[in-house]
Amino acid sequence: MTNAALTNTVLYLDGVSVTFDGFRALNKLSLAIAPGEMRAIIGPNGAGKTTMMDIITGKTRPDEGEVFFGGMIDLTMLDEAEIATLGIGRKFQKPTVFESHTVADNIRLALAGERSPFSALFGARNRIPEERIDAVLSTVRLTEHRERLAADLSHGQKQWLEIGMLLAQDPKLLLVDEPVAGMTDAETAETAHLLKAIAREHSVIVVEHDMAFVRELGCKVTVLHEGSVLAEGSIDAVSANERVIEVYLGR
Amino acid sequence: MTRRPLILALLDGKGAVFLGVLASLAVLVPVSNLLLPEASPLHVPTYAVSLLGKYLSYALLALALDLVWGYCGILSLGHGAFFALGGYAMGMYLMRQIGPRGVYGHPVLPDFMVFLNWQELPWYWHGFDMFPFAALMVLAVPGLLAFVFGWFAFRSRVTGVYLSIITQAMTFALMLAFFRNDMGLGGNNGLTDFKDILGFPVQAQATRVALFVATVTALALGYLVARYMVTSTYGKVLVAIRDAESRARFLGYRVEHYKLVAFTVSAMMAGVAGALYVPQVGIINPSEFSPANSIEAVVWVAVGGRGTLVGAALGAVVVNTAKSWLTGALPELWLFALGALFIIVTLYLPKGIVGTLAEWRDKRRATVSAKPAEVAAGAAE
Hints:
Pfam families (chain B): BPD_transp_2
Order of helices and strands of chain A: HEEEHEEHEHHHHEHEHEEHH
Oligomer: heterodimer
Keywords (chain B): Cell membrane, Membrane, Transmembrane, Transmembrane helix
Shape of chain B: globular
Protein name (chain B): Urea transport system permease protein
Strand content of chain B: under 5%
Membrane topology (chain B): Multi-pass membrane protein
Distance between the termini of chain A: 35 Å
Structural class of chain B: mainly alpha
Subcellular location (chain B): Cell membrane
């Protein structure tokens, strides 16, 4: 890829490989996400979807390959907190929120801004305007649950709260791991709606098993298999691809 | 958030009660001990003043432990080490105050050094003749150890039971080191036979009362510092780390820095507790580093209620009162009782005394507030 093409990406992976105890989780994976793009990533279990997220967010270091954010920042040199501060948000597969805090406090802690212990003890972190929290809560439709403990929310509501926390971070890129796992059909439809709204202002990568949901998102799809890209294109194109049917859809 | 005056923001119901109790103790105990005649039923004898002072220094240790365990999930099984280090710093000051009045009458060297044929004061004993320096060391030595230990442990992401084990190893290693005569800190006899503190005789009634008041004050200040920390956003991040460490990390929080601040502040508080403990019991020796002591402190916090601060202090006083009584009445039973207590609390009272009381109160409030709604629903039918 030329330099001009590289600088025109929000995320750029080239030839990324990683091996755990002899198991090759990623095998020369290459991927480019354009600014403002929404991308769905599908693939069977063990295809390397979660490992790819771990690499992007700094949890795992690749054995080889390049990972660039915004065309020039080398993510392989940074740790989780630095990468999060740069503007990459991550939603886990299992909804992970701060259960002993209220919904509002979960958002309060996630909101972009100074994050040092000093600031949290004495400084600006203690003076977050409530309106900023309200704005996020109305986007994810949790306004009426504002003062409830996160532990008391339903599974779907926790998923939305976590997406809200991601939004509060104001990231340039959101990584969303199986957002509709365990959701009811109504919740799934609402989540698709929510993600599409978010994708208007952010780049989003969604990892998902649920094909109906991916179709609803209506974006470009990348199929992973054994740690590398098997196919890429519209949902109809990849569903028609014979190799994809063989390794994934056909089963 | 509406901005309330700091002191109001810090005081919830139980905090106000707690500080109220401490303030009354600080006034009533001295009055009763110094002004009432010994025959009076309300007279608190001097030995009891020191005993209570000892319990309250344990309460400060428990408070320090609760800050890291209750709020950040760092189960330190080595907090006794910070307590003992603060105690040794104070003990060194008290040894230097003896001056030439030791048994051997050496102008500078403490008795145990004369006994071991030492010719001059080791370098690290210099400065401890000055109280301000000793007071600084009470904070600095435990604080520095916690900072260095925490720096490596938290940066390497050692958590959970592994962290507990290495804190335990730390205090055990220190205990072995302090047992050695070569350490120059009195070996297994430790430091004792104190005479003066700030020019006042340690054994005198008025000094003991003053030490008691100082301990109550330190406990109140320690509570306010800890309470400020946990009510600020910093405290919310600590709890967030306790609940979902990786979530906090992916939100951009430097988890290791947050833990390090809490661990270091907590160690300094434990050091102050140790420094107040030593003049009131009259001795500090390496057994204070024993792992069992640190584990006992964990039981205090569990009994009183993790993550409540007040509960930790209460637990320390309750368990130690029980210990004093039981070791007097049936000494061989104490360890069994302690073990049983821990099991009972873990199984049946996981939130401790204060946590359980708060839960009952919330439940009652919930039923009370639900009642009018039921009445309204009944009327509608």
